[in-house]
Amino acid sequence: MSAELIHATAADLAHRLSAGEVSAVEVTQAHLDRIAAVDGDVHAFLHVSEQALDVAAQVDADRAAGDALPELAGVPVAIKDVLCTLDMPSTSGSKILEGWVPPYDATVVARLRAARMVPLGKTNMDEFAMGSSTEFSAYGPTKNPWDLTRIPGGSGGGSAAAVAAFEAPFALGSDTGGSIRQPGAVTGTVGVKPTYGGVSRYGAIALASSLDQVGPVSRTVLDAALLHDAIGGHDPRDATSIPDAWPSMTAAAREGLTGDVLKGLRVGVVTDLDGEGFQPGVRQRFHETLEKLSAAGAEIVEVSAPHFQYAIAAYYLILPAEASSNLAKFDSVRFGMRVDVAGGTVEDVMAATREAGFGPEVKRRIILGTYALSAGYYDAYYGSAQKVRTLIQRDFDACFTQADVLVSPAAPTTAFRFGEKLDDPLAMYLNDVTTIPANLAGVPGMSLPMGLAPEDGLPTGLQIMAPARHDARLYQVGAAVEQLLESDWGGPLWSKAPQLG
Amino acid sequence: MSEITPESVRHLASLARIALTEDEIASLTTELGAIVDAVATVQQVAGDDVPATSHPIPLTGGMRVDEPGTPLTTAEALAGAPDSDGTRFRVTAILGEEQ
Questions:
Q1: Which residues in A lie closer than 8 A to residue B55 (C-beta atoms)?
Q2: Exposure pattern of A249-268 as b/e (b: 16+ CB <10 Å)?
Q3: Which end of chain A has less Cβ packing within 10 Å, N or C?
């Protein structure tokens, strides 16, 4: 029973819970048992909730009493540690926030609770979401469930690994330059970065406020859609939240599973995101996928985005600039760590605290951002980067006149080994070459499994991108692609994952 | 080549209020030099005719209705503080002797 429950999709669990075939306590206990069995090896979680069974029991009691419950009531969910939670520590992977329990819930967390989902715990991440491997977590890295000697991607490696290791059916992530999609690619899971402003950032510990988006992490496209619908939509507490009404992502995914959405679909292949620096097995699976899409009736068109080559450079100016400002709040006064300095002023205490509380990548980016914003350099660096952002948006606009969706590999390589890129920041930054353009332009992107690379047997990911505000198109097309690929594989990719525990 | 020197890293660290060690200053000087050289390519592409984008999805307004809400209580606001007297955050001296 327990093994079967952890392999079920969230959609299936929701159905069986509402039908009374299984209780929320049983489902929650199965996932807690799984966490206890494998998380010593995987280390996806920084904190496991002590309230999960009580929350589940209340759902069961309300259901028994005949209450009308939301669709996902009783389904467990994991939460990236970047999100504020009233009942669990929220550290964003940093020592400077060790043990900090926020006095409020992030809007997305409040919405999970309103949907009566069962928070299982907080997942590991690179410190303040700065990284592509979780190696910059102050609490040690998460391991890739496909190969425990390899990285699970980052920054949201904990959420992706938790879902890939069947410790949760789905999870929340955040994506500033690929932190949902790149972990999805290397762990064989699904991840979606919504349109900027589509999901509230209130209570998400800010990295770069013009880039950050919260989104779903799951094993199927339909499950991601269910979670997206639960957390998305306008939030008056986030001034950048889009006030428009949104269509149902779940309905879009279901249409993709049942309809004939690939026939006549114009699929734009971004030629600038394919070639040098991409692992041969990733390219092979990508081109095989294009052939399958073509055979299913899609029209494959090559599109060019000539300014994408400057995206990483622009990103590593805009992100540090915004991060250096956002992280100024960690001042040893209102929350988090304080390192006392005998006879020192509050500024001495602040500097000593930030020296002790921040890890190497965070310091690197704060100093870089401080430099980029300095008088005399501002126009040359930050100002130029913002112009590149305009050019990248124009590239997207031009591409979307020729194609309904754009596709690329979601990550240039499969999961690399721990330590491989730790001492070379520029090599680490290249992991995000495929995902960063969508953040700079604000458009939505999805990563979904694209098969195992022949040379190492590790997952590869397909990225699908749609115009801003057209997230539903991602779910429609993503669900159709998922079904097309799985029918060829004879089942989901995760059924080929090695046994853990 | 960039103009990143140990002195400039030390100055930036003081602006950012991080008491870096000498070893960190040395390694950051090298790393930041390489990073700044790499990201400087942004200067090659955009001319004066290209406007800057600060925000990916243009929105105007963003104001919410001005009505009383339920703010944090003092105890909630102080709960995560390193030190407080129960009504306010408590810190050490704001000014040093030379100030």
A1: 210, 240
A2: bbebbbbbbeeebbeebebb
A3: N
* A154, A134 contact by CB (below 8 A): yes
List, as one string, the DSSP characters of A338-403.
Answer: ----TT--HHHHHHHHHHHHS-HHHHHHHHHHHHHTSTTTTIIIIIHHHHHHHHHHHHHHHHHHH-
State how far the Cα of A408 lies from the Cα of B65, in Å rounded to an integer.
Answer: 42
Q: Domain B6-44, what architecture? A: Orthogonal Bundle (1.10)
- If you ran DSSP here, which 8-state letter would residue B64 be given? P
Is residue A165 included in any domain, yes or no?
Answer: yes
pTM, rounded to two decimals: 0.97
> What are the residues facing A461 on neighbouring strands?
A449
Within a domain: A219:
yes
Chain A 338-377, residues with CB within 8 Å of chain B CB atoms = 338, 340-341, 344-352, 354-355, 358, 360, 363-364, 366-368, 370-371, 374
A299 lies in some domain: yes
- State yes or no: is A18 an active-site residue: no
Cβ–Cβ of A367/B9 closer than 8 Å? yes
CATH number (domain holding residue A187): 3.90.1300.10
User: In angstroms, what separates the C-alpha of A444 from chain B's closest C-alpha?
Assistant: 11
pLDDT of amino acid A460: 98
Give me the domain span that covers residue A17: 2-305+397-496
pLDDT of residue A1: 58
Interface test with B, best of A199, A315, A325, A371 (most B CBs within 10 A): A371
The low-confidence residues of chain A, meaning pLDDT below 70, are: 1
Task: Tell me whether residue A436 is in a domain.
Answer: yes
Question: How high is the pLDDT of residue B99?
Answer: 59
In total, how many domains does chain A have?
Answer: 1
Q: What is the DSSP letter of A217?
A: E
User: What residues are paired with A464 via a beta bridge?
Assistant: A407, A446
Contact between A234 and A242 under an 8 Å Cβ cutoff? The reply is yes
Active-site annotation holds for A496: no
Is a pLDDT exceeding 60 seen at residue B1? Answer: no
Question: Domain segments of chain B: what residues?
Answer: 6-44
Which residue of B11, B17, B89 to mutate against A (max A Cβ within 10 Å)?
A: B17
Nearest to A73 by CA among A37, A109, A113: A113
Q: What is the separation of C-alpha B8 from the centre of its chain, rounded to a whole number of angstroms?
A: 17
B-facing residues of A in 388-427 (CB < 8 A) are 388-391, 393, 425-426
